[in-house]
Known about the structure:
Blueprint: H1 6-15, E1 19-21, E2 33-35, H2 37-56, E3 61-64, H3 73-78, H4 80-83, E4 85-90, E5 97-99, H5 100-108, H6 117-126, E6 142-145, E7 149-151, E8 161-163, H7 169-174, H8 176-182, E9 189-198, E10 213-223, E11 241-245, H9 247-251, E12 257-260, H10 261-266, H11 273-288, E13 296-300, E14 312-320, E15 323-332, H12 336-345, E16 351-353, E17 358-360, E18 363-366, E19 368-371, H13 372-383, E20 384-387, E21 392-395, E22 406-410, H14 415-429, E23 434-436, H15 442-452, E24 456-460, H16 462-467, E25 469-474, E26 480-484, H17 488-496, E27 507-508
Bound molecules: glycyl-adenosine-5'-phosphate.
Glycyl-adenosine-5'-phosphate binds near residues 210, 369, 370 and 373.
Amino acid sequence: MTQLTIEGMAVFCKRKGFVYQNSEIYGGLAGFWDFGHLGVELKNNIKYNWWNFHVRQREDIVGIDGSIVTNPKVWKASGHAENFTDALLDCKKCGKRYRADHLLEDELKKEFNAVTLESIKEMIKKHKIKCPKCKSDFSEPKVFNLMFTTNVGPIEEESAKAYLRPETAQLIFTDFKLVAENARMKLPFGIAQIGKAFRNEISPRDFLFRCREFEQMEIEYFVHPDKTGKCPFIKEVLEHELFIYSDEMQEKNKKEKKMKVKEALKKNIIKTEWHAYWLAVEHKWFTGLGAEADNFRIRQHLKEEKSHYALDTWDLEYKFPFGWKELQGMANRTDFDLKQHMEHSKQDLSLFDEESKKKVVPHVVAEPSQGVERAFLVFMFDAYNEDKERGNVVLKLHPKLAPIKAAVFPLVNKPELIEKSREIFDELKKEFNCAYDKSGSVGRRYARNDELGTPFCVTVDFESLDDDSVTLRNRDDTKQIRVKIENLKETMRKLVNQDIEFENAGKLVK
Ligand code: GAP
């Protein structure tokens, strides 16, 4: 992996048309980003592949698409209205506001995964930390609720106040009974959702990593309360290896350790099979789409760090250029949410268990919850390569994720080659997002497409007019094969899905 900084990635993404600062012509708005013509393709491909892998290819998970604004009672029941807060510090003189844990991290060059107001106060005093902008003192630390508010209807009073959802998960809980009954789901089963979430972050930063508007891909996985120990799918992941960083390792200042899932379970490092299963599955989702396995670790939350609802939480983390950071939070939420909604709504959300002939409130044993923007960054960082020999960037995105699957060019600007290229382009375009490119030398066109992550380039030359074949060039190793035009679509299909090695997909051009 080329070590590009997060700022460097933001510049690259803007220059190539992946991501722009929102409303840049007006000076922008911190924490909001727009996706350009390539960014929206990559983002859609991430979401499509996530949905395919987690929903379409399984029979135990179904989806919903809940609304962004919902009855505010939902957030009272979930605890967000009271507890969804971060600690902030106000400068007494210039009034600048800081997210307390971020300020401590910047000043003391140390990670702070859980801080109380009391400990913030102590550290500010002990290390004599002042406002970085004007070097003055801070007022007492206080908590700040991260939910954005809005009004529903043409009234602006307390009774009309509602919130933009800070997570998609709660909609899954409020719709739980309807989905379970209508989709005739039997425990264990999951409900998935992809959608926007909004958090009024005190200090949005690190480009797409911490935004105020972002998307989540979440699953709530429900299990019978008496069967939270055994996972019927555990065999699929027992041999899977990944870096593990338990609370004990963190407390003893040890480093993460690579081990197999079966070892982590045997040593009781991961307490439940369900948690182990979902953590491994999520790691596999990333690596299956080309991410480098060793750039990930799973880290257990320290006791004081866990959310108000969680029995145990592990994060899937990624080694970003600015350190190991959370990519995906995975909490064991028990029956907290369903019970809260039962109590607040006075509705029965339990399911009838055929075996025991009793009503049961299922437990959420794991909640794979992933931000789309953070996944976007992971795939971009892992794909980004500055190729010294070629003298250009090669963005080695998995073909399934690549915004443009193939670029079609005529070798030179001759009408007969242009006509043939356009025919091929029009045909391929019916199935794949393709580009037609006729400007500059072929070398320049290859370089341009390498930088956009286009995995295959199709060149139409004079021979093509005689033998009805084209040259297909592979982005990652620049190898070239000759493929019959009539077989091109099928070959592309196999190559995008990585069902065939490039060299075996046609006649290798020496
Ligand atoms: N339903 C559980 C939940 O929302 P979370 O850890 O607060 O848990 C889940 O968020 C994921 O959403 C994070 O792991 C991250 O990938 C993404 N996420 C959270 N806040 C974000 C932000 N401000 N900007 C971008 N992504 C964010």
